[in-house]
Design a protein that fits this description.
- The complex is a heterodimer.
- Chain A has no helices and 11 strands.
- Chain A is mainly beta.
- In chain A, strand 4 and strand 5 form a beta hairpin.
- By secondary structure, chain B is mostly beta strands.
- Chain B starts with a strand and ends with a strand.
- The chains are: A mainly beta, B mainly beta.
């Protein structure tokens, strides 16, 4: 059973607008969450993370929101740029569960000029 | 960026042959991971390690084994390759809990 889910396989937004990528999880033991960006033929690169003791973390154009009661997190990109077009993965880990790092299925973001 | 390299980058092998993929990191990270990426499935964890000689299974471990005899190296072995193991394999490492993991460039494996 998938513990981390990204229910939207793709998202298309206009340049300059906000992109919102969503992620849901089922394991209440997860206490650290990350977002990665992946271009074709490259390894994923880290974008931003959030600990379960926080509900928001911001880094430049990227903001991650965590709603623990809903077991939901989201990544906001403002403003979106064509170079942001990539596949985005959310990931989660539980510090008291062997430090597994579990990923969602990914969302392909297309930012149109 | 963390120094994490995978070898080989590309490999074609025949069904039934054993294959070993290597992951090497120079950051003295404690934790290392092997994933496979397939269309529609995202990144699925095969095996992971939380220290030298300490490894555990992930969600898709059947047909794979791993070894970690040194901090810097994490080997993934396909005991007897099958066509269903054709995939792109990624290795990752991280220092500790609540830190980001760094990924290698990937190995594209084709089993014919």
């Amino acid at each position: 059973d998938q513990q981390v889910k990204q229910n939207s396989p793709s998202l298309s937004v206009q340049e300059g607008r906000i992109s919102i990528l969503n992620c849901d999880y089922t394991n209440s033991m997860f206490d650290y969450f990350l977002w990665y960006k992946k271009y074709p033929a490259e390894g994923p690169t880290f974008l931003i993370s959030i600990s379960s003791i926080k509900d928001k973390n911001e880094d430049g154009r990227f903001t991650v929101f965590l709603n623990k009661s809903a077991k939901h997190l989201s990544l906001h990109i403002v403003p979106s740029q064509p170079g942001d077009s990539a596949v985005y993965f959310c990931a989660a880990s539980a510090s008291n569960a062997g430090n597994m790092l579990t990923f969602g299925g990914g969302t392909r973001l297309m930012v149109k000029p | 960026d963390a120094g994490i390299t995978q070898s080989p980058r590309h490999k074609v092998t025949e069904t039934g042959t054993p294959v070993t993929l290597r992951c090497h990191q120079t950051e003295n990270h404690r934790y290392m991971y092997w994933y496979r990426q397939d269309p529609g499935h995202g990144l699925r964890l095969i095996h992971y390690s939380y220290g030298v000689k300490d490894t555990d299974k992930g969600e898709v471990s059947d047909g794979y084994s791993v070894s970690r005899s040194k901090t810097e190296d994490f080997l993934l072995t396909l005991e007897s390759a099958t066509s269903s193991q054709t995939s792109v394999y990624f290795c990752a490492s991280r220092w500790s809990v609540n830190t980001e993991a760094f990924f290698g460039q990937g190995t594209r494996l084709t089993v014919v």
